[in-house]
């Protein structure tokens, strides 16, 4: 059956799996379908009534556009409905539990949003003269002060725009520091369990990535690490807590060992949420560490907004920090924009302006509304919640590493062996239960990994319901109901997608292929 936009309708299954309900519109109650916006366009339809602009002489030379760019013609209500309908199909942390490990999807308090919209902040322009934005510069300076205090580090580069960008900043500072000593070093050591951005960053900076295996207990193998150390090693990139949700207990020793060979210690601090106010990276011998403001200090991310990845730096790396940075001069706050004074060895600029101002405002609002005691409690509650999930499931799923976890609970797929049900199937069935799936198949060192990060902002009732749903699914898998899982998700706006096909034959540009589609687009 075709719906009114010429597409096959998505049948809605009922609970006995036997009867399917197809509607004429393709809508199911308040779950509304919407065709591609290009399919909705009708030539000549307009959304705004404006005068024809006067002809202009193009100064673009052969860069000038040769033909129409093919935007659809639509009315305002069509556009509005299209995007509102799409937004209602979107899962969000504001709608439900989002246990995506490593991503720290926690509640973004609305006070942050209110402050970020204050007219003096929301209306700023990055090209305003410093004398007119003293308050904004002071805000950046205060946030920098909080970040340095929390981490026990002497300096912070504020401009990196996300965690991965922060890693780039840190490794560029490391490279600049070696070059300043006239040294060319070739390798960066990265544990096997590292976040994928770590080896990518090292490679982008021209280093050879040398992987260090993990021990049976999920921490970096110190002996293997020692064997790889040498005068050509520029540094080590270690995530702590690591991506198995474990604290790297020998971190101080790792720092001493890398310093011994003249290398620097990069710590991936994306998971600072778990140790906030409990551990100061500065006390662990860290030389550079990015902080994902969007994970630790709330602020929306993952489709909800940009991130921000300030990088705290040790005395040794601080002189190489990127420009610009805020300094307090006699006449007020200034922006150091060129290599002089404090910044005379800066490796350069990473970004057009000073960083993600909207994220800075949200992060500072979050810190100030929680206070020092509240920030410390965040780490305690995040770890408590993860362990609550771990204990709630550990008779049905295997934890590959013994003992207490940090902010995320990690399971492998060994208890699913022989059931025909995979980690992916469990994830799809979770969608039917109304949950965003956990992180799957990561970290790579764990077979069929399921990485669950509840964060501190979830209540005990939410966790109990989630644990209940997971137990229900696992029992169903173990009882041999493979067909149920292979058909999942049953109730989502779309059924299971052909992920392999989508990866192998991506369709990145819309062009009507069938006569029927062409007809719909034009009529
Ligand atoms: C999220 C994350 C990153 C990357 O941060 P982005 O802001 O997504 O670039 C790096 N390392 C770890 C451990 C992370 O969890």
Topology:
Blueprint: E1 12-13, E2 20-21, H1 37-40, H2 76-88, H3 110-116, H4 119-122, H5 134-151, E3 155-157, H6 163-180, E4 187-191, H7 197-204, E5 208-212, H8 222-228, E6 233-239, H9 251-260, E7 264-268, E8 288-290, H10 293-296, E9 311-313, E10 325-329, E11 332-336, H11 357-393, E12 409-411, H12 423-432, E13 439-440, E14 450-452, H13 460-478, H14 482-487, H15 499-504, H16 515-522
Parallel strand pairs: 4-5, 4-6, 6-7, 7-8
Antiparallel strand pairs: 1-2, 3-9, 8-9, 10-11, 12-14, 13-14
Provide structural commentary.
The two termini are 20 Å apart. The longest helix has 37 residues, at 357-393. This protein has a domain at 111-367: Aspartate Aminotransferase, domain 2 (3-Layer(aba) Sandwich). Strands 3-9-8-7-6-4-5 form a 7-stranded mixed sheet, with helices on both faces. The chain is 34% helix and 10% strand. It is built from 16 helices and 14 strands. α3 runs antiparallel to α11 (357-393), α6 (163-180) packs parallel to α7 and α11 crosses α13. The chain is α/β, with parallel strands linked by helices. The protein binds pyridoxal-5'-phosphate. Residues 102, 162-164, 195, 197, 239, 243, 268, 270-271, 292, 307, 309 line the site of pyridoxal-5'-phosphate (PLP).
